[in-house]
Design brief:
The structure is a single chain. It contains three helices and four strands; from the N terminus they run βααβββα. The protein has about 100 residues and is α+β, with helices and mostly antiparallel strands. It has one domain (about 1-95): RelE-like (YaeB-like fold), CATH 3.30.2310.20. α1 packs antiparallel against α2. The mean pLDDT is about 90.
Amino acid sequence: MNLVYLEDALTDIGEIGDYIAEDDPEQARRFLASLREFIATIAENPRRFRLRSEWGQSVRAANFSSYLVVFEHDESNVFILRIASGRRNIVALLSDDER
């Protein structure tokens, strides 16, 4: 499947990288590389991750470290919606998205 990063997800990645880089730029680089590798595995079989119907009809989430990778998929694409701390209010984040 193809990976499609929504603008909010790209912003999330940038902000996460900037936050980690404040203390350790090399760690930020390694973390983001690992995150992107993990997201690539989502595209291999997105149905293996839990359906989160409380967040939207077809929304799924995958845990990566203390973050959630929130996504939807169809037959040929995985849409990365957000990447957020598991402590964030995901419903509020998704309600800001224009999908």
